[in-house]
Specification:
alpha+beta, two-stranded antiparallel sheet, 4 helices
Length: 125
């Protein structure tokens, strides 16, 4: 995929975090109380002024790109409830994602979904 660095994926994010994501960022010196928000039993990236806590609007880039959460690494390949693994249509560069990229990332997306939400989300596909 080609990224245009528009920041749309970082806007009003609901990106779930794994324990591993939180631990990796905490070990790098970031306070989980500052960059996370709890949504029921799910831990998500916090938004600040409408963007991900780690998004630098001046640079149009992630401040923790090398440490970014698994869901961010996989984006715009996502799990679409009721459908399965696909490309997030909200991404302006979605058309540049190949079928091969979706196939390659699909097992990781499903593993992430299972780890964060559990098996019940995958039933009925």
């Amino acid at each position: 995929m080609r990224c245009s660095r528009c920041g749309e994926c970082c806007r009003d994010t609901r990106m779930p975090l794994t324990e591993r994501d939180v631990r990796r960022l905490a070990e790098a010196g970031y306070d989980p109380e500052e960059f996370t928000v709890r949504d029921g039993r799910i831990v998500r990236l916090r938004n600040v002024d409408g963007y991900c806590y780690f998004y630098d609007r001046n640079r149009g880039a992630c401040r923790v790109y090398e440490l970014r959460p698994e869901g961010c690494r996989l984006y715009p390949v996502v799990f679409i409830e009721g459908y399965g693994v696909g490309v997030d249509a909200r991404c302006p560069m979605a058309h540049t994602v190949s079928e091969e990229e979706v196939r390659r990332k699909a097992p990781r997306v499903l593993r992430l979904v299972r780890g964060v939400y559990g098996e019940q989300v995958l039933k009925g596909l």
